[in-house]
């Protein structure tokens, strides 16, 4: 984490090396005062109708910045991490499925929230990630809407869908949402905060004007930990509490496994032994593919989320150990609405700061101060983890994930992806597609005449200029590597089982 010495560069004080507490405090105060002046200038440059909202947002940003200046060293002392207690993580298999007669009243107390702030740029797409087609020309948003409409029709309820957008995705999402108007679903949207990026050298905002559109690179959405305050500010939190809603289910829009789970909702609304859980984090067993994912730890007698960014360098290997930390966070979370309200009113929401260092196109080094939604766990009472099946974690971050969800590994039913019963084991294949030729969605699609049969695939690595014909089957471990300047065309109808293909193979007549 950046030390306040970053601020010393700005102040250029002759006593920079003294290291005295007084000097450091003066430097912090100086950095904060300068920042406050810059933020006031930005507010002054905003149109009258936006000034109040901007001041509200900047209050949150100034608070984050102050904590960033004050915090020294890692937020977790490694030696003080305690072993998880036996009841810290519930096994999903022990949960009871509710009877149909209570499902109606349970769902009336639920709100579904999807984190929809991300763009599709990492996969070569313009606009919100949620409008990328993932299956049968249906987008992430289409599938989510189908799932909830199906719930509403089946149980004669009105579960609302809430989308947390960012300034990057809001306008496009609003246009897309219009097409769902005639469906049996109530959709609400609100925007997470818009914070100014900070120059790493001067610790000052790089934005010169409150008009975000003029210089998009000068602003950023501060991670999904911003959900709680922005949800509250939008008025939706109070609205849903007023309607008698009790819990919200929060998940990433790109996690196709994050559907409403009635057994988890039943645990929350009809607890057997009177235990009250204000917060639930769905975790799943860690595999070698998940070693960087956040995990649950016991710390200062509370369950909390530990992210890799918080781990001291010398303990990174310990953090990645599957033996030491068996679970990782799926970012499927359940939180009690009145508890969110209480924690915010009492100003008890303390989320660890994630310092995201970036370099802009013009070479300027900046920092973004972010927080994670799951880090709020320690602020709530009776927080627990539930070890859910891997099927509830099906994120699409890259085209390698897209290959899996478009394949015959899954069938689509009412907006939910269900793994084929023909697959002998429940784990998904490990797929690695070369960045140079497969990372962008359009090029990825051009390289497959249709998606291969992956039912019996364990591992696939593809690198270089490779194309696939129609009706290809991949089984076991398949590695296909076209060296630089070479090209490999896998012919239509080919069966590759435990094969390594390399070199140059052009099939001209197929």
TrEMBL record:
Provide the reaction this enzyme catalyses. Answer: alpha-D-glucose 1-phosphate + UTP + H(+) = UDP-alpha-D-glucose + diphosphate
InterPro entries found in the cross-reference section? Nucleotide-diphossugar_trans, UDPGP_fam, UDPGP_trans
**Residues that bind substrate:** 224
Q: Does the keyword Transferase apply?
A: yes
* Molecular-function GO terms, alphabetical: UTP:glucose-1-phosphate uridylyltransferase activity
Q: What is its EC number?
A: 2.7.7.9
Q: Which domain of life is it from?
A: Eukaryota
Write out the ranges of the annotated region (Disordered). Answer: 1-28
Please give a single GO biological process term from the UniProt record: UDP-alpha-D-glucose metabolic process
Sites binding UTP sit at 129, 192, 223, 254, 397
List UniProt keywords, sorted A-Z. Answer: Nucleotidyltransferase, Transferase
Has the keyword Lipoprotein been applied to this entry?
no
Gene3D superfamilies from the UniProt entry: Hexapeptide repeat proteins, Spore Coat Polysaccharide Biosynthesis Protein SpsA, Chain A
Its subunit composition reads: Homooctamer.
Q: Which PANTHER family match?
A: PTHR43511
Q: Say what the protein does.
A: UTP--glucose-1-phosphate uridylyltransferase catalyzing the conversion of glucose-1-phosphate into UDP-glucose, a crucial precursor for the production of glycogen.
What does the sequence similarity comment in the record state about its family?
Belongs to the UDPGP type 1 family.
The identity of this protein, by name, is UTP--glucose-1-phosphate uridylyltransferase
Species of origin reads: Oryctes borbonicus
């Amino acid at each position: 984490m950046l030390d306040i010495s970053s601020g010393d560069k700005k102040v250029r004080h002759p006593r920079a090396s003294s290291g005295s507490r007084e000097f450091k405090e003066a430097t912090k105060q100086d950095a904060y005062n300068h920042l406050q002046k810059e933020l006031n200038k930005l507010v002054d440059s905003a149109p009258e109708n936006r000034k109040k909202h901007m001041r509200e947002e900047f209050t949150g940003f100034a608070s984050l910045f102050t904590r960033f200046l004050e915090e020294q060293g890692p937020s977790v002392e490694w030696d003080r991490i305690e072993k998880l207690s036996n009841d810290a993580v519930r096994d999903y298999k022990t949960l009871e499925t509710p009877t149909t007669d209570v499902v109606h009243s349970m769902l009336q107390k639920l709100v579904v929230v999807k984190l929809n702030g991300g763009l599709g740029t990492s996969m070569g797409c313009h606009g919100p990630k949620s409008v990328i087609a993932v299956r049968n020309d249906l987008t992430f948003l289409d599938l989510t809407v189908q799932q909830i409409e199906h719930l509403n029709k089946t149980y004669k309820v009105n579960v609302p869908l809430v989308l947390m957008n960012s300034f990057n995705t809001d306008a496009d999402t609003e246009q897309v949402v219009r097409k769902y108007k005639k469906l049996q679903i109530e959709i609400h949207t609100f925007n997470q905060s818009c914070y100014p990026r900070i120059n790493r050298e001067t610790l000052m905002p790089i934005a010169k004007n409150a008009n975000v559109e003029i210089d998009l690179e000068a602003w950023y959405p501060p991670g999904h930990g911003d959900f709680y305050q922005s949800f509250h500010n939008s008025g939706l939190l109070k609205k849903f509490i007023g309607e008698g809603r009790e819990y919200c289910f929060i998940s990433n829009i790109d996690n196709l496994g994050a559907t409403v789970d009635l057994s988890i909702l039943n645990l929350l609304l009809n607890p057997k032994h009177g235990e009250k859980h204000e917060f639930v984090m769905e975790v799943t067993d860690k595999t070698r593919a998940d070693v960087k994912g956040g995990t649950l730890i016991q710390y200062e007698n509370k369950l909390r989320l530990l992210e890799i960014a918080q781990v001291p360098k010398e303990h990174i290997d310990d953090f990645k150990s599957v033996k030491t930390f068996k679970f990782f966070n799926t970012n499927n979370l359940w939180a009690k609405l009145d508890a969110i309200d209480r924690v915010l009113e009492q100003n008890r929401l303390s989320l660890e700061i994630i310092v995201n260092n970036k370099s802009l196109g013009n070479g300027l080094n900046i920092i973004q101060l972010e927080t994670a939604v799951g880090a709020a766990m320690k602020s709530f009472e009776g927080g627990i983890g539930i070890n859910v099946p891997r099927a509830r974690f099906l994120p699409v971050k890259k085209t390698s994930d897209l290959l899996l969800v478009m394949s015959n590994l899954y069938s689509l039913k009412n907006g939910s992806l269900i793994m084929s019963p023909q697959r002998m084991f429940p784990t998904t294949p490990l797929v690695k597609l070369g960045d140079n030729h497969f990372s962008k969605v359009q090029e990825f699609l051009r390289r497959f005449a249709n998606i291969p049969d992956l039912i019996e695939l364990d591992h696939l690595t593809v690198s270089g200029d490779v194309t696939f014909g129609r009706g290809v089957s991949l089984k076991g471990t398949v590695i296909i590597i076209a060296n630089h300047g070479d090209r490999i065309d896998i012919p239509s109808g080919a069966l590759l089982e435990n094969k390594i293909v390399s070199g140059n193979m052009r099939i001209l007549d197929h």
